[in-house]
Amino acid sequence: MRDRLRAVADLAQTLATVRGVESVIEQAASQLRRALDAASVSLVVGERDGVPLRAAAGDDLAKYDNVVDSNSAHDSWRPAAFHAEAGTPSRAPYCDLPQPARPLDDLGTSPAGCDPQIRRERRNLIVVPIVVGGHTVGQFQATRRPDQAAFDAEDLVFAHALAAQVAAAVAHAEQVERLERLAFQDPLTGLANRRAIDERLALAIAGHRRHGGVVSLIVCDVNGLKQLNDEQGHEAGDRLLMDFARLLAEASAELPGSLAARLGGDEFCVLVEEHDADDAVRLAEEVCRRALALPGGQGVACGVASTGDPVGPVTTAQRLFRLADAAQYRAKRAGATMPVVAGRGAAPDVTVRLVEEEPSRYRSGDRRRFRGAAHVDPGQLLMSVLRELEGAEDPGTRLERVAQVTARSLGAQAWRLSYVPSDGQLLHLVGYGTSTAAADAGHLPASLEQRAANLDDYPARAAAVRGGSYTAELGAADNDPTEEAVLVRGGHHGVLAAGVTEPDGGGWLVEVFTGQESAPVHGLGPVLHALLAVAVAGPDHA
C-alpha cells in the first residue's frame, strides 16, 4: 500500500511539472505503465483539430496493445464517445466493460465486443475512464502478458486513483493553455493580439539590426464601425470585425511568415518579415480592395512602413509602429481607399515628418488613436491581474483585485463587486472602488449607492452572475434598458461586467464603470470572465 501511495504521489508530482496537454498524456502513459507493472499502456484524452490525443508506452506494442493496432474497428472510433456523464459505462475500442471496470479475465471466455485476438491470447486487460468536471473525456488501457500475474480488484482501485491524478493534470494543463491563448490571442477574432505583435516585432527589429533583413508593418483601421454599431448594434459590428479578420488572415498567408493581429477596437495590423517592401505594399493594396466588398463595411484606412523604404534608421519597434500608424493616419484623414506608404511621398516625406515632430502636434487630432489613447490589451491585462493575485488566498480578496486592476487598466470611474447566494435572487454589494477624480468629488456615483438589487429586475446582471458577461456603452441601440438607466444615473459612459459561480452555487459579479476618457470596453467581457474564473479557482490554479 505504501508503494502505491508513493506511486500516486510521484505521478502527481511529475505531471505537475509538465506543460501542455499533449506532454501530460505522454508522461502519464510511461508513469502509468511503471506504476501498474503493465506490459503496455495506452492513453487517449479528447482530441485536437479532429485528431484524438493519444500516447502509448510498452514493449512490442503492436502485439500487446490493441489500442494502437491498425484495426478497422479502431479507425472508426472517436473520443466523442467519452462525452457522457460520470458513472456511465466506460468504452474501450473493442470491449464494453461495466462500471466500475473489471479485469477482462473476470468477464468470461467470450465477452461481447472484444477483439478475437484478446480472447485467443487470454491477455489480461483493464480499461479505466478519465473523468474531468463530471464528464468522461478519455480513458487509459493497461495490458499484461499471459506470463504476468492477472490484474485483480486492488489493481483496479489503484488504477482509478492513478486516473484521477491524470484527470487533474489534464484539467490544469487545459486551463493553462486557455490562459496562454488569452494572453496572446484576441478573443473576438482569433488573431494575435497587441501583446503578441509587440513581442514578435521587437524580435524582428532586433534581427534587422543584426542582419539587415527587411521588416514591414501594415496598420489598418476599419472604416464605419462606430456608425454600424450605432445603427445596427454591436453584433453587426462584431460580424464586420470578424469578417475583416478572416480577410486579413487569408491575405497575409500569401506572404509566408507574416503575422496578422488585432490591436484593439477597429485597428488591425500585419507584420511582414523577410519579404521586400513592395510585397508588403501589394499585400496592403489587396487588403484594401477586398475590404471594400465586406457587407456592412466602408473599406479600411491603411498605412505601410518598411525598413526597405527611405524612412531613416529604424532601430526600435516603436519607430516602425509610429511610421505605419502615421501613414494610416494620413490615409484616414484623406479618405483614401488605397494604402499610404511611409517614405514614398515627395521629399521631404510627410509621413516621416509627422513622426519626427513633437507628439503633441497630432495627438489631439480627429483620429481616435494615433499612438495616443488606446485600447486595453487583453494579454497585458491578464498578466497584470495574475501578478496582483499572488499571495491572496481568499476568493473575495482575489476578485476585488481583479476588479481593481481591470478598472485601473481601463482608466475607469468606478468598480463594484457583488454576491448572490445559491438559493437567492438578491445581489448584495460586497465591495467597490472609485477613481481618484471621483473620490475628490466627495460623493459616490449613483451606480454605487445601491446596496442590494433583485436580479429579477436586472436580466443582464442575472445572466452574467451565473457565468456570463456583458458590456454596454451609453446610447448603444442594443443596450439592456435597466443597465442604460444605471449608466445615466451614475454619469458613466460604459460598463463592463462579468460573473462567475462557486462550487456551492453562489455567484459573484464584477462591474467596471467607465467614462468618456476611459478605454473602450466592448469585446472585453470574455476576458473579465476568464480572470474571475482564475480568481475563484484559487492560487493553485492561477
Please provide a brief summary of the model:
By secondary structure, this protein is α+β, with helices and mostly antiparallel strands. 43% of the residues lie in helices and 20% in strands.
Question: Which short descriptors sum up this protein?
Answer:
542 residues, 5-stranded antiparallel β-sheet, 20 helices, globular
Write the layout of secondary structure elements.
Elements: H1 2-16, H2 21-36, E1 40-48, E2 51-58, H3 61-64, H4 72-75, E3 84-85, H5 116-121, E4 124-132, E5 135-144, H6 153-184, H7 194-211, E6 215-222, H8 225-232, H9 234-252, E7 259-264, E8 267-273, H10 277-291, E9 300-306, H11 317-334, E10 340-341, H12 350-356, H13 360-363, H14 378-389, H15 395-410, E11 414-420, E12 426-434, H16 436-440, H17 446-449, E13 452-454, H18 459-465, E14 469-473, H19 481-490, E15 494-501, E16 507-514, H20 525-537
Parallel strand pairs: 9-10
Antiparallel strand pairs: 1-2, 1-5, 3-5, 4-5, 6-8, 6-9, 7-8, 11-12, 11-16, 12-13, 14-15, 15-16
Helix pairs in contact: 1-2, 1-6, 2-6, 6-14, 8-9, 9-10, 11-12, 14-15, 15-20
Helix content: 40-55%
Low-confidence stretches: 61-122, 358-374
> How would you write the strand order of the largest sheet?
13-12-11-16-15-14
**Count of DSSP H/I helices:** 20
**SSE class:** alpha+beta
Q: What's the end-to-end separation, in Å?
A: 33 Å
The radius of gyration over CA amounts to: 28 Å
Q: Round the mean pLDDT to the nearest integer and report it.
A: 78
Major beta sheet summary: 6 strands, antiparallel
Beta-strand share of residues? 15-25%
What shape does the CA trace take?
Answer: globular
Total beta strand runs: 16
